[in-house]
Amino acid sequence: MAVLNKEYFKEELTETYELPAEAIAFYNEFGYVKLKNVLSAKVLEYYGELITDLVFKLNQLTKPMEERTTYERAFLQIMNLWLENEEVKEFVFSKRLAKIATDLMQVQGVRLYHDQALYKESSGGITPWHADQFYWPLSSPKTVTVWIPLQTTLMEMGPLAFAEKSHNVEIGRDLEISDESEAFMNEQLKQFAVNETPFDLGEVSFHAGWLFHRAGANVSGKARKVMTMIYMDKDQRVVEPGNTYQQADWEVWLSSKPIGSLADGPKNPLLFTY
What we know:
The structure is a single chain. By secondary structure, this protein is α+β, with helices and mostly antiparallel strands. The chain has one domain: Sandwich (Jelly Rolls). It contains 8 helices and 11 strands. The strands form 2 sheets. Strands 1, 2, 3, 5, 8, 10 and 11 form a 7-stranded antiparallel β-sheet that branches. A 4-stranded antiparallel β-sheet has the order 4-9-6-7. The chain is globular.
């Protein structure tokens, strides 16, 4: 039975999700979209257990919460789990999810930039306002992250919140995740509506690389377990790193590909193409 279940789970990860017609227009206007019933409870349970085992196996952040920085209190962050486990690789390489990313960005295909598990511990603090692409030496804004809660995520767990349409402005694009980014953007983002709502089991979100987002503290008494994949246009090119974080990303995730070349290094496989 376990073998049959596993094959069924693999099939679900490749089946096409019927993307609502209005989802693409919403994503383009607001910079994000939340989609219900993208993954079944069984798939999330099966792969969630594997992901959780890897997170605790690979985690090296063991300092007491009171000794951590704001960034460290936000979550345990483990990257490129697909290189550690073949079954987790099945999840990360899901054509179902990669096709949604392709269609939302209105491109011809997507590559993986990297995956990352983001586990906000039961006493974890806020995730400050930030835009992900601050960290990425990539040529175009055609990037998107899928945020996949591995459990129903109520408000007290710190679901992702989105500053609607903030991907269209350039304020704050030089800020890393920090207390400073939280304070600055709290003031600046008064001009934007903020969507902060719970996530049902099986509901996921996709947000653009330059969209500002944050998450509240986890006061639920349970860990908030989330898996993410970052997708980029298959024709994305590498640019000169503009800060130390981009320099590190260029070396680690982009395998130091030559500036101006396609971002198609060994860690950036093609996940979907038309």
